[in-house]
Amino acid sequence: MSAPARPQAGSEWARVQRRVRVPRALALAVILGAAAAALVLVFFRMDSIHLRYRLGEALQLERELLEEQRALTLEVRRLRDPRRLAELGPSLGLARPARVVTLPEGDDR
User: Cβ neighbours of residue 7 under 8 Å, at least 6 residues apart?
Assistant: First the structure.
């Protein structure tokens, strides 16, 4: 058996082979571009994960603060209860007023 014949320099096969060759600089540029794009994607993924953790912490803090606000609101209501104040007043030396003056509404002077 003989080896397959190489195409002549002027043949169609040689022209196709020359057109298919990719310059090394172009291949390197494509590879570096793909690597840079992959690194950018990794950065954005890591950043989004970090933001999700921060959001979770902020939501937990919000829940804790809302619970504290509810407890403080209940405490204020308890402290402002008229029955409690009526019982506490005499022990602090406070007395009911002898006379109550009611002012008319709407007179801003």
Answer: 13, 14, 17
